[in-house]
Design a protein that fits this description.
This protein is an all-alpha fold. The chain is built from five helices and no strands. The model has no long low-confidence stretch (mean pLDDT 93).
């Protein structure tokens, strides 16, 4: 296994970075009246997932902080799933688009849980 030297090399980062780009394109089709509500919310939460992963990576020296940031990312992932459900129920996205993105965020969530569970693999002590 190669040593990961940057958060950008993490599989979870790559997936969590790609997903908001897809959401951004989908939300461009949302009604104008949703610009400051659903559109803004879903975009903000999808971006927060990946930004918390980046912050967690930088806090690897401090296992509790590392886990805390990954937990925030987990929470943002769940909230993203909520907004995707709402977009589906409002008929702003198709069932296929919903399934594709939900699967992606479920996968991100699983990866985050594994990172938290195996924090010792990712964290290192202060020297």
């Amino acid at each position: 296994m190669d040593l990961v030297t940057s958060s950008r090399e993490l599989k979870v980062y790559k997936l969590a970075y790609q997903a908001p780009m897809e959401v951004f394109l989908l939300t461009k089709k949302f009604p104008v009246e949703e610009r400051f509500d659903l559109t803004s919310q879903i975009r903000r939460y999808t971006r927060s997932v990946v930004s918390n992963i980046v912050e967690a990576w930088r806090r690897r020296r401090y296992p509790k902080n590392f886990v805390s940031k990954l937990t925030e990312s987990e929470t943002e992932t769940d909230e993203t799933l909520l907004w995707l459900d709402m977009a589906l129920d409002c008929n702003y996205i198709s069932k296929e688009e919903h399934e594709k993105l939900s699967d992606k965020y479920d996968h991100i969530l699983s990866m985050l849980v594994l990172m938290i569970k195996n924090r010792d693999k990712w964290c290192f002590s202060k020297t």
